[in-house]
Write a structure and sequence with these properties.
The chain has 844 residues and is mostly beta strands. It folds into seven domains: 117 residues, Sandwich (Immunoglobulin-like); 97 residues, Immunoglobulin-like; 101 residues, Cadherins (Immunoglobulin-like); 98 residues, Sandwich (Immunoglobulin-like), CATH 2.60.40.60; 103 residues, Immunoglobulin-like; 105 residues, Sandwich (Immunoglobulin-like), CATH 2.60.40; 152 residues, no CATH class. 14% of the residues lie in helices and 38% in strands. The strands form 18 sheets. The chain has a four-stranded mixed beta sheet. Strands 8-14-13-10 form a four-stranded mixed beta sheet, with no helix packed on it. Strands 16-23-22-19 form a four-stranded mixed beta sheet, with no helix packed on it. A hairpin with a 7-residue loop joins β50 and β51. The radius of gyration is 81 Å and the shape is rod-shaped. It binds 2-acetamido-2-deoxy-beta-D-glucopyranose (3 copies). One 2-acetamido-2-deoxy-beta-D-glucopyranose (NAG) binds next to β41 and β42. One 2-acetamido-2-deoxy-beta-D-glucopyranose (NAG) binds next to loops.
């Protein structure tokens, strides 16, 4: 349809032109005509008949003419043979005329015609670079011009480029700049400062328009890249960062990530992080920052006690030029962890304490510390239970270690007080400290003898100056307080000061005799020994040493009867010749000052005029006839009687008895039995008195007891008297407490010596008489009691015997039972023998 329009237009022009041609034939056609389009009627214009066209072979001769045009032989018309592009043929020249040679043959005739090619607006303006890239600095000043490429249009004249337009934008406008030969070049003018951060790329479309009708256009895409200028600071996400870290956080732990952005691009927007320039080493050694990521990691060890909080300045810097930086603050708070054990510090060294120090005496001052804070540093101290020390708190964790109970150096000379400090953290930490405390001695212990009483058995006739015994006392105290010296307390022995008998080595307690002792004069005595320490004030204690002198056989038997024999002269006894066998002639009686075996006397006939007539009773010394006297017997008989004791060595003496046999003498001169009966009566009387006095004493005791009992019942709450009774019975059970029994035996029991008495009272000594010789000696039972009590006495006897060869069964059958069961507190000795006296024994 468009072509048809074009064609119609063309025909109109053609006829208009045709009419104006004169002279040389000239055609004018627009370019780009269709093939076959008629340019002009050659036949007519050359004045040729139609027949001639064929016959004369009318044709286009010139080469270019041949290409574009041909002659229609039928009609004689010049037609377009090929596409005609004015721009191709004539370029940018304003007029475009094609000269054509038309050849006619027969006759050969040459015509010259011209075909003017007229421009049609068939080319649009075009840019050489369809997409133009421009880089403009962000900092470019307003008004700066940027020359653009101008568009080309193949068409000429008004069909060529006439104007330019630019897409609307706020930053740029388009201005035309005249250049030489009247051409104009488009220029971009910066109207407003660029901001890459707002718009980094501007896309513009430059359109070139031609003057044709219709108007054709060509475009060029202009891409303006705004070049970044480092005009932005890095911006932190937050101005203040705040984090908390546990004190015990491990190394390399991530702490926080700092983030910052820079609106610039490229290096201008590349942010690098660092710690501020004035960051102290204490921070640098603990934290590190990754410059690229902004991550902060822990690099060192945290210690709340050194730094509880870090305030760090962080710098973010871009890589532009000049570089831009900004800062933020990072606060890292350290949370305390209970990582410090409490500590006990002695503020004053422990002082030695006297063992008698009052409760509350200060021993040492100490201080409890914990480097942590808050509850982690709250320290409690503990002293082990049962120790006589306690802690007295004073101001701010200071304590005084004070005594809180009785001390005794003798039991604990030194204490190592282990004090435990515990904090209140979770879990709590604790530590211990041992505080050595020395207890100094106070003289609070008296010397103690190894025994309360010592029994020493000493043979008589010893060498003076020999060691009698060694006592020893120990003192639990220390040093001078334990240094014991011994002394003998003055007392009287047989009206002589004891110090004339013995002396003591004050250093070691050895007691020396100063005399030889005579058993016959002194049988027992006691020494009060005192041990005294050197303390101030000094303490002392006493012990009693009982010295028993042991009998030695140092006395020969002495004859008492016949008395004249005692003088060493002859004793004359008379007897009737009519005496039967067994007639008692006389009785020889001797005594021995010694005791025991040493005093056990036996009689025997050593020599006799007629050995078959008389005999002497071995034990009694009774001289009796063996047979009836006969008429042949000499009237004067002599007997040499040897009296021996049983000591070691045996001591003996002799007595000569001369007997005169008389006729007609009937009455025995001696009635020993009668003689003996008298003292028996006397003794009976004494017994009666004794029983009477015993009865009265018993009544008195009973009364006293009753009164005490009544008192005791009245104040039953605090009955000291009752208690005393118990103590009494204790004593009773320990009959050996103050009882010493001395027994000399060798074969049959001859005598028992009982020593009794309380320590302070004068000891009592007596002898019981069990000589088998004596048919009268006996203990009399006062109050029969159980035999067990007696057995205790026996066991005591046994224990205290110097040589325990003694057995209770060893008595001879002929001997009367010598010991009867006794009331334990009272023994009664009824003695008719030679030594009988001291009827009462009180065993306490
Ligand atoms: C410290 O300990 C006490 C008692 O156990 C408790 O009441 C208090 O809350 C604690 N204080 C802290 C800061 O943990
Ligand atoms: C005590 O000292 C004397 C003299 O130095 C010495 O003979 C005696 O054996 C000593 N006694 C003891 C028990 O050491
Ligand atoms: C020791 O005996 C003496 C003299 O009898 C006396 O003064 C002293 O108090 C006694 N000491 C003790 C501890 O019994």
């Amino acid at each position: 349809m468009k072509n048809i329009g074009w064609l119609a237009l063309w025909w109109h022009h053609f006829f208009l032109l045709w009419s104006t041609i004169d002279g040389q034939t000239r055609y004018s056609i627009p370019e780009e005509l269709k093939q076959g389009s008629v340019v002009g009627n050659l036949a007519k214009d050359l004045g040729l008949a139609l027949s001639e066209i064929f016959d004369r072979r009318l044709r286009v001769a010139s080469q270019t003419g041949e290409q574009y045009f041909s002659v229609d032989a039928g009609k004689g018309e010049l037609v377009v043979n090929d596409r005609i592009d004015r721009e191709a043929l004539c370029g940018q020249s304003a007029s475009c005329v094609l000269p054509l040679q038309i050849v006619l043959e027969k006759p050969l005739n040459l015509h010259r015609i011209e075909v003017e090619i007229k421009d049609m607006n068939d080319n649009s303006p075009s840019f050489q670079t369809k997409e133009l890239s421009l880089k403009i600095a962000e900092s470019a000043a307003v008004g700066t011009r940027f020359v653009l490429e101008s568009a080309e249009d193949a068409d000429v004249g008004s069909n060529s480029v006439k104007s330019y337009t630019l897409t609307k934008n706020e930053c740029f406008t388009l201005k035309m700049k005249e250049v030489e030969d009247g051409k104009a070049v488009p220029e971009l003018v910066l109207e407003k400062p660029l901001d890459r951060e707002k718009k980094a790329v501007h896309q513009l479309l430059l359109t070139a328009l031609d003057g044709g009708n219709p108007v054709l256009s060509g475009t060029s895409q202009i891409t303006i890249t705004v070049l970044d200028n480092n005009d932005n600071f890095p911006v932190f996400e937050k101005n203040n960062y705040k984090v908390s870290l546990q004190e015990n956080t491990a190394k390399n732990t991530f702490v926080v990530k700092i983030a910052a952005t820079d609106a610039d691009e490229g290096p201008n927007g590349e942010v690098e992080f660092s710690f501020g320039s004035r960051t102290p080493d204490s921070v640098l050694s603990v934290f590190e920052i990754n410059p690229l990521t902004g991550e902060i990691h822990l690099k060192g060890d945290l210690d709340y006690e050194k730094a509880s909080s870090y305030k760090i300045e962080i710098t973010a810097r871009d890589k532009g030029f000049p570089e831009m930086e900004s800062h933020c603050r990072l606060q890292i708070d350290i949370v305390d962890v209970n990582d410090n054990t409490p500590e006990i510090v002695l503020t004053s060294e422990p002082q030695p304490v006297r063992e008698d120090a009052a409760s509350g005496t200060v021993v040492a001052l100490l201080n409890a510390r914990d480097a942590d804070s808050g509850n982690n540093s709250k320290v409690t101290l503990r002293v082990p239970k049962g120790s006589p020390f306690t802690l007295k708190p004073s101001f701010s964790n200071n304590y005084a270690l004070v005594t809180s109970g009785p001390l005794d150096r003798e039991s604990f000379p030194e204490y190592n007080i282990e004090i435990t400090a515990t904090d209140s953290g979770t879990p709590p930490l604790s530590s211990k400290k041992v505080i050595p405390v020395t207890i100094t001695d106070v003289n609070d212990n008296a010397p103690v003898f190894t025994q309360k009483t010592y029994n020493v058995y000493l043979k008589e006739n010893g060498v003076p100056g020999s060691i009698l015994y060694s006592v020893s006392a120990s003192d639990l105290d220390f040093g001078e307080n334990a240094k014991v010296s011994y002394s003998i307390l003055d007392s009287k022995v047989q009206d002589v000061s004891v110090s004339s008998y013995v002396y003591i080595n004050s250093d070691n307690g050895s007691i020396y005799s100063m005399h030889s002792f005579d058993y016959e004069k002194l049988k027992v005595f006691q020494i009060q020994v005192q041990a005294k320490d050197q303390g101030s004030p000094s303490l002392s204690s006493n012990a009693t040493v009982h010295v028993f002198i042991l009998d030695q056989n140092d006395n020969a038997p002495a004859v008492i009867y016949p008395s004249s024999a005692a003088m060493g002269s002859l004793s004359h006894q008379r007897m009737p010749r009519s005496a039967k066998a067994g007639h008692l002639v006389t009785k020889v009686t001797a005594v021995d000052a010694d005791s025991g075996h040493n005093a056990w006397i036996s009689y025997r006939v050593a020599e006799a005029t007629d050995a078959s007539l008389f005999t002497v009773n071995l034990y009694t010394g009774e001289v009796r006839t063996k047979r009836a006297v006969s008429e042949q017997d000499d009237s004067s008989q002599r007997l040499l009687i040897e009296i021996k004791d049983d000591g070691e060595p045996i001591q003996s003496s002799t007595v000569t008895v001369s007997i005169i046999l008389e006729d007609g003498l009937h009455e025995p001169i001696l009635d020993l039995r009668h003689k003996v009966a008298e003292p028996s009566k006397k003794t009976g009387r004494i017994t009666l008195y004794l029983i009477l006095s015993l009865a009265s004493v018993s009544v008195l005791s009973l009364l006293t007891f009753l009164i005490l009992a009544v008192k005791c019942i009245r104040n039953s709450s605090s009955s000291s008297t009752c208690c005393m009774r118990r103590t009494d019975s204790d004593d009773y059970k320990n009959p050996n407490r103050n009882l010493q029994i001395q027994l000399n035996t060798d074969g049959p029991i001859k005598y028992v010596e009982v020593l009794g008495g309380d320590m302070l009272s004068q000891s009592q000594s007596f002898r019981s008489c069990m000589s088998p010789m004596s048919e009268y000696s006996d203990f009399t039972l006062i109050k029969p009691s159980s035999t067990t009590d007696f057995k205790e006495v026996i066991s005591v006897l046994d224990a205290s015997l110097p040589d325990s060869t003694w057995t209770f069964e060893s008595q001879q059958g002929s001997s009367p039972s010598p010991i009867h069961t006794q009331h334990p507190k009272q023994l009664y000795c009824n003695e008719l023998g030679d030594f009988g006296y001291l009827p009462w024994i009180k065993i306490l």
